[in-house]
Structures are given as structure tokens and as C-alpha cells.
Amino acid sequence: MTTPPDGLPRYRVLTGPDDAAFCQRVSEAIALGYELHKGPAITFNGENVIVAQALIWPTRP
Known about the structure:
- InterPro entries: DUF1737.
- Residues 10-55 form the DUF1737 domain.
- This is DUF1737 domain-containing protein.
- Pfam families: DUF1737 (PF08410).
- The chain has 1 helix and 4 strands, in the order βαβββ.
- Strands 1, 2, 3 and 4 form a 4-stranded antiparallel sheet that branches.
- The protein has one helix spanning 20-32; strands at 11-17, 35-36, 41-44, 49-56.
- It has one domain (5-56).
- It is an alpha+beta fold.
- β3 (41-44) and β4 form a beta hairpin.
């Protein structure tokens, strides 16, 4: 597949609290065919650890 399914963008950034639900969202994107783009960004908002993970749709020749 050369384009992401369901009209999804080629580049995505998922964000949210560092919990199982966030990990599940990233895992689902990988299962669709996305690849991680570098490492995650992590911050603390005074209450929770918040993470962001960029994902890209691979370009294959």
C-alpha cells in the first residue's frame, strides 16, 4: 500500500498521557503500517507525564 488507509495523513503526531491507552494508539498505528519517526517527546504538566510520538507512512520504491 503506497498511501495510508482511510484517508489518514502520511505524517502523524500522537499525544497524550503516558498510559496504556497511549501505548495502544501507537501500537495500532504501527499495525496499520506506520513507522516511528525518531524517539518520543516527554514532558510533565504538573500533574501527568505527557508523551508525543511522531509516525510516518513509509515511502517504498
